[in-house]
Amino acid sequence: MSARYLLRRLAQLVPAVAGIVLVAFVIIHVAPGDPVLALAGQHGDVAYYAFMRAKFGLNRPLPEQLVVYAANVVRGDLGTSYVHGRPVVAVVLERLPATLLLMTTSLLASSLAGIALGVTAARRADRTADLLVRFAALVGYATPSFWLAQIAALTLALGTGLFPVQGISDARQAWTGWRYVGDVVHHLALPALVLAANELALTTRLVRAGVLDALTTDYIRTARAKGLPEPAVVRHALRNALLPVVTVIGGRIGMLFTGAVLVETVFAWPGLGLLLLSSIQTRDTPVLLALFLLVSLAVILTNVITDLTYAWLDPRIRYD
Amino acid sequence: MPGSTRVFGMTSILRSASGVVGVALTGAFTLLAVLAHVVAPTDPFASVGSSLTPPSRAHTFGTDDLGRDVFSGIVHGTRTSLTVMLAVVAIASILGVGVGAVAGYRGGGVDDLLMRGTEAVQIVPRFFLAVIVIALFGPGLDRVVLVLGLTSWPAIARVVRAETLSLVRREFVDAAHALGATTWRIVFRHVLPNALPTALVVISLNAASVILLEAGLGFIGLGDPRSISLGYLANNAQRFMRIAWWMTLFPGAAIALAVLGLNLVGDALSDLADPRRRRSGLPRPGA
Amino acid sequence: MRGVPGWIAAAALVVLVAATGPRAQETPARGGTLVVAISADPGHLNPAITTSGATHTAAELLYNGLLGRDERGDAIPDLAESWTIEQAGAVYRFRLRDDVTWHDGTRFTSADVKFSFEEVLLKFHARTKASMSSALAGIETPDDRTVVFRFKQPYAPLLLQLDATEAPIVAKHVYQASDPQTNPANTQPIGTGPFKFTSYRKGAEIRLARNPTYFKKGLPLLDELVMRVIPDPGTQVLALENGEVDFLWGVPGPDQARLKADARFRMAQTSYHPGGSNCIMTVSFNFERPLLKDVRVRRAIAQGLDREAFLRQVLFGEGRVAAAPISSEMAWAHARNLTMPSFDRAEAERLLDAAGWKKERDATRVARGVPGIAYGTRLAIDFVHFPAFSKYGELMRQQLGAVGIDVTPRPLEPAVFAPTVFKDRNFDTNVISYCNGPDPEIGVRRMYYSSQIGPAPFTNAAAYRNDRVDALFDLAGRTVEREKRTPIYRQIQEIVVQDLPYYWLVETPTTRAWSAKCGGFKAWTGLFAEAAFCKR
Predict the structure, then answer these.
(1) What is the pTM of this model?
(2) Residue B119 and residue A15: Cα distance in Å, rounded?
(3) Cα dist. A82→A48, B17, C348 in Å?
(4) What percent of chain C is predicted at pLDDT more than 70?
(5) How far is A30 from chain B (nearest CA, A)?
(6) Which DSSP state fits B227?
(7) Mean pLDDT over all residues of chain A?
(8) What confidence tier does B2 reach under pLDDT thresholds 50, 70, 90?
(9) Model confidence over C167-189: pLDDT tens digits?
(10) Does A16 sit within 8 Å of B123, measured CB to CB?
(11) DSSP classification of residue A162
């Protein structure tokens, strides 16, 4: 992968971010009511609205306003949330780590499980195991995540008494050090499991398809004929199958955030999900807009990273 | 002619077991939706029994918390959800075909610009966009349709563009022009039929997310209480999960079966489109 | 007793008293941590600048008011140890305790009270501002232990407006020379209450610790109190059943039967809520709409509604059908044995027929000779409501449809609901949870008083005007003796039940639940855990 490709890919960040800012801008101005309400929320006073009007140049012609808005976004200045009494961006960033923890854990879990299940399904293609795996994965995908969450809480937490149903840590005891880490992991288990179950279907399907495909190529058949042991064959096929998995993660980040929001609400996981919920209830639109921009940015960045990873993994692909 | 063999070939979807199951399920749901008033003449909004009664002879799937018939809710809910899906598909298809055909046909700078735009739209997280739109414009299924329609077209555009490009490369277009065909005629008669199987895959994968998105929005309080859709039923049942299992099980099974059917059809179609290509149903990167 | 030496009798008496006195009863356990589930992150912890339920639920334990409330809703001493009412209720003189300190050690004085009202409550607390600011002439503090409220006219409701929910007292030395809305003390509060602030992790939890210098000796009993933010009501119940939390502010209807039958939990129903007490789900009729001008139509709507069905299907039996316009929780103001419109479909149909609305082939009635309405107009009205109240809309539609009225529910989210109903007045009927508050002057007057028709939210939605009712409210607001106010409120209720600007559906109490290991909760006040304990 050439440096030229790397630079070119990074340069594509700019129009993508610009597109997102444009979408947000359009919505703010197309929505009924005064745009300042969307930018400053319902709870401000006259002085604050005047301040926000000046900051976002709402009295200037639209194209100028767009530039001002874009500049503010890039600077990370989206005003203050009256509900929280602090800058919007600070409010959102403060909740981000908990959600990132949840998402990366689920991504890891669903990827590993997806690979394992996909390989199993591919090796026993069209037999019972394959159908079972595909069916189970599909059920995980088709079930609304908040249902899955509540069923998990009911059966795996309350039912067995092994897991907690809410929060990121124990309410009664404030642990420190490694015991705190253990406590968080204990609380992370169920939410991450539920989120992973939702995501499993796609990964399983992709790996299965990729492995099946690779297993039928001449290269593999030759290897088998030459007596290469089966695990090695599977490993080669797997390397091929991983490429689309990597690509598709970028596309799935948006859905992963969505799932995280719903799962967080049920398990009271203190991340962006709970922030979204409370901002909806209080109609704190500046925070909602900031969340939209943040998630979009995360999707863009993930796409860049996965593209670069893909190019690195498979040098046969030429991107000029 | 390149177009017709593919169209003909679509009936071979029935050769695989999963294809049959998929078509059967999707067909059954479509039939249910079309014949909703015949199959379930009870008004799904009307209180016809006592609240929270389990399945019985009078009410095959029981009643909900307002005494409404769950079976009737599911049948009419399927109708609503299917209508929403169709509306989303219609919007996405019109936009996708338009953008894809123009991009593939014109090529060059126009193509580049349109593809950048397509990428930008593909990035937009649909759930969060729907949240903002509903927070600013108010709840309603029509907003959900618009948001999903306006964000789902990129995948279709890519497919149409790919097909258009391949035809352009084959100088097929020049020959057709020489015979007097107009551009749009070429698009409709040749590009679309070839693009259809892959596009259908994309559509079927997207369709399921409509119901789930709608249920998710309802769960956080942004649903449309005026329409009974499968998403509404899923959301409404959640509070009663522990005391009325039938409110959860039957709509849940309906959603799962609908999603399963659509996905199986999608799988079978993608096998058809290119049996030797990866059966992932997704356009390759860079395509 | 004869023959027994005095000292033996005395000793026996002492032993007897010791054995049967409080010591012999179970001593509530000291210490322990109580974990409480709250539904929303409060944002900040200053209950004096907001009426938000979330903030008050989380923060009231950190503060006190001049007075408190007992189980019956009557005023009891808190920061003020005694009071006198002078000039027939135009002057209230409070004597404050002298043993109160703020959590940072500073002494509490009357200056704090004056400051709290003048600079904070009367500027930012919606209910206190709305009811007191025009009536108050001034607040005087002749010495550190005395506060005098002077009103322009006798002011009846004051004593019930002085608890931590309606008028929490904040520290002058913390808030002076700053904007109360942005002062950092809002997230690191300093109060006088039974618990002091330890930490606040946004969106997750608030931790409070026992205030060792609390002025009520021996209280609180708990060492620590943790409030966990758990938005999903189902998860709250699961957390209680799993032992992760000990106290719930509200148990969802579907789960009540199960918890009631479970010996591990105790429950108590109350109409008090930190965000608004004694609430009644009320249907408003927009008097400015021609279709609703005839009282027979409004009466027909009232008689077409089966309120028992609302109670069963929407509230799962948790609540009461409203027997009068004023909540039964205020027993002295609630009109007993009032003749409210009864559920009677036949009578509703008769009234509509008499008013000129005839049933024809289509199910909806049509105007045939209704003054002011065009011949052939359908009896179709809309019903505006918060999305959360959509079940009410559903039942309205069904029940009124049965008597020939076409109702279209229009869900509007809270931010749009208020301007639509109160500013634009663009509705036929709506449903609002009108909270009566601790005194009818606080939450009831605003519904009927003619000057309360205006853009401010949750005022007189019906646009009802009745000079007699206005005069009666004025009189009730000036009469301090409760027994004299009762007949005045009765008269008001009789009139409005005849005029039907509203129809009062159901009273909506909530049910608290807690682990049986804990006890001593006061469900009727924000200082609910002041005397609470948890056995280990």
Answers:
(1) 0.86
(2) 10
(3) 9, 58, 48
(4) 95
(5) 9
(6) S
(7) 83
(8) very low
(9) 999 999 999 988 888 888 999 99
(10) yes
(11) S
Give ∠ CA B159-B160-B161 in degrees, rounded to 5.
90
Q: Is B245 on the interface with C (CB under 8 A)?
A: no
A268 within 8 A of C235, measured Cβ to Cβ = yes
CATH code: domain B77-280 is 1.10.3720.10
Instruction: Rank A194-203, B132-141, C78-87 by mean pLDDT and report only the highest.
Output: C78-87
> What's the CA gap between A146 and B143, in Å, rounded?
22
Neighbours, chain C (3 or more CB pairs < 8 A): A, B
* Contacting residues of A for C242, CB less than 8 Å apart: 157-158, 161, 164-165
Cβ within 8 Å, pair C254-B242? yes
Q: Using CB atoms, which chains have 3+ pairs under 8 A with B?
A: A, C
Give ipTM to 2 decimals: 0.85
Residue C435, pLDDT > 70, answer: yes
CA distance A91 to chain B (A): 17
Distance from the C143 Cα atom to the nearest Cα atom in chain A, whole angstroms? 36
Determine the 3-state secondary structure of C363 from DSSP: coil
Cα–Cα distance, C172 to C175 (Å, whole number): 5
Contact C442, C402 (CB under 8 A): no
Give the nearest partner residue to A138 out of B123, B260, B279, using CB atoms.
B260
The letter for the amino acid at A160 is T
**Contact by Cβ (8 Å): C207, C199:** yes
Where exactly are the structural domains of chain B?
77-280
- For C139-158, write each residue's pLDDT tens digit: 999 999 999 999 999 999 99
Best interface-test mutation with C: which of B243, B247, B248 has the largest number of C CBs within 10 A?
B243
Cβ contact A300–B278 (<8 Å) = no
**Neighbour count for residue C376 (Cβ, 10 Å):** 9
Which of these ranges, A90-94, A230-234, B36-40, B80-84, has the smallest mean pLDDT?
Answer: A230-234
Q: What percent of chain A has pLDDT over 70?
A: 94
pLDDT of residue C27: 62
Which amino acid does the sequence have at C389?
Answer: F
- Span C18-60, pLDDT tens digits: 444 444 445 668 889 999 999 988 888 999 998 888 899 999 9
Give the end-to-end CA distance of chain B in Å, rounded to a whole number: 24
Answer whether A172 sits within 8 Å of C35, measured CB to CB: yes
Q: Tell me the chain C residues in contact with residue A268 when contact means C-beta distances shorter than 8 Å.
A: 228-232, 235, 239
Size of interface A-B (CB pairs under 8 A): 154
Residues with Cβ within 8 Å of residue C117, at least 6 apart in sequence: C128, C139, C167
* A275 part of contact set with chain C, CB < 8 Å: yes
Distance CA C466, CA C458 (A): 19
pLDDT at residue number C26? 52
Distance CA C62, CA C59 (A): 6
Distance CA(A57)–CA(A62), nearest Å, equals: 9
Min Cα–Cα distance to chain C from A276, Å: 11
The arithmetic mean of pLDDT across residues C440-454, rounded, is 91
∠ CA A98-A104-A105, nearest 5°, is 90
In the three-class reduction of DSSP (H, G, I as helix; E, B as strand; rest coil), residue C374 is classed as coil
| Per-residue pLDDT, B13 | 63
Task: Select from 2.30.30, 1.10.3720, 3.40.50, 3.40.30 the CATH code of A101-281+300-313.
Answer: 1.10.3720
Helix extents (H) in chain A: 3-11, 13-30, 35-40, 46-55, 62-75, 88-123, 128-142, 145-152, 177-215, 218-225, 230-267, 272-281, 285-313
Integer Cα distance of C41 and C203 in angstroms: 5
Nearest CA in chain A to C38: A268
Give pLDDT tens digits for A82-109.
777 788 899 899 999 999 999 999 988 9
